[in-house]
Amino acid sequence: MSDHAADKALEDRLIDFLQRSPSPWHATANLVTRLEAAGYRPLKETDSWKLSAGEKYYVTRNDSALIAFQLPASSLETLRMVGAHTDSPALRLKPQPAIVNKGWLQLGVQVYGGALLAPWFDRDLGLAGRVHVRRADGKLQAVLLNVREPIAIIPSLAIHMDREANNGRPLNAQTQMAPLLMQGGDAPDLDRLLKQWIEREHGLEVADIVDFELGFYDVQPPSRVGVGGEMLASARLDNLLSCFIGVEALLASDGRQGALFVANDHEEVGSASACGAQGPFLADVLRRLNAALGEAGDEGFVRLIQRSLMISCDNAHAVHPNFADKHDANHGPALNAGPVIKVNASQRYATNSTTAALFHDMCREADVPVQQFVTRADMGCGSTIGPITATELGVPTIDVGVPQFGMHSIRETAGTRDPAYLIRALTVFFNRDSLSIG
C-alpha cells in the first residue's frame, strides 16, 4: 500500500470511529471491537485473573472507561503507558427532562464539562448514550442508544429581537438551551419514545425504562475540509482523537515490551470518579498485573511504577490565525506540524525536562516533527489526566497532544496529517527498549 493510500485508510478509520462514537459508552464499545479483532481478550474485574506472559488483554469499567495491555514474554520489568479520555463536553438530559412550553415539547439539559455553548444553536441534534431497561422477562439490561436522525434543535433568537447578540451576550443553560423535540399540545411519554428507538435499534422488547444517561450530539458527520483536505472537522475530537491514536499505536507495536493504553471517563468534569483518572481504576489494574508477572509486594509495585512512563495524550491549542494574540508568540503550535509537548510551571501539565527529553528522542527516532505549547503568562491554563495520574501513581509523565482549533465546541478542527505523526511517535514509544536517559 502506498503512503498516500495508507494515510487515506487511516483517515477513513478515524472518521468512521468518530461518527460511530457519539457518547463515551459508544466510544468504549468501538475501541473494544477494534481490540478484540486484534486478539485482545476480555477480563472482568470481579473475576480472579490468570494472566500469561506474552498475552494481550483488556478490561472496562462503567462501560465508559477502558484499559488494554500487552504483556512481555518475560517478567514485567517496566510499562510503556499512554492515557486519554473518552468523554467530551455535551448537553446531557436531566432525569425528568420533559418540558411543554408554548406548544413545544422540549427536553431539559445539564451542561457536561466546559462546553462552548454558542455553537450548539441551529444544529441538527441526535440523542445517544446508555439506557437501563427492564425486559419483558423482568430482567434489567443496559443498552446503548444512538438516535442518528435529527430529532431536536436549539433555534437561535433572531437578531431583530436581540441587537446585542453579537456583543458577547451571556447564555443561560437553564432557560435558553433546552432543545425543541416535538410540536404538540401535551407532552408525549418520553419513555414510549425511548422504547420505540431501542426496539428499532436492537429489536428488544422493553417493558420499562428504568434509568438513562443520554446526551444530544450534532449528527453532521466528520469531514475533510480545505482545498487540499488539510483539516478534519468533527465533534468530540477532544479527546476521541487521542483514544483512536493510542489504540492504533498499541496495535502497531511489535509486542516485545509491556505496554498499556488507558482511556478514562469524566476528565471534562474533574476526573473524580471510579473510572476517572483520579479514581482507582488504573492503580487497581497495575497492582494485579504486578502481582501476576512482576516483583511481589509493595516495593515491587513501586519499582515497576518508577521504571515506567506515562504519556498523557490530550489535544493542544493550535494558534488561530484570527486570534493569534491569544498565544505566547514563541509557542503557537500549527496544524499538521507534529505532536505538541505541553508545559506548565504550575503543574497543570505533568511534563518535566526529563520526560520531555525522552519524547523529543522518540520523535527523532520516528522522524516526526515536534512542537511545544505554553499558555500566555497572563491567562489561565487547562489541565489533563496527566498531572492527576502522576499524582495518584507517582509515575513519570509527559503531556502531549495533536493541535486543534475550537476546543470544546460542538464541532472542532484538527489537521489530517497530525494523527499519523503521533501514532508513529507512540509506536516507537511502545517498542522502545529503554525508558532511561544516559
Automatic annotation (TrEMBL):
Its cofactor is Zn(2+). It holds the Pfam family Peptidase_M18. Keywords: Aminopeptidase, Hydrolase, Metal-binding, Metalloprotease, Protease, Zinc. It comes from Salinicola lusitanus. CDD domains: M18_DAP. GO terms for molecular function: aminopeptidase activity. Its EC number is 3.4.11.-. The keyword Hydrolase applies. Belongs to the peptidase M18 family. InterPro entries: Peptidase_M18 (IPR001948), Peptidase_M18_dom2 (IPR023358). This is M18 family aminopeptidase. Gene3D superfamilies: Aminopeptidase i, Domain 2, Zn peptidases.
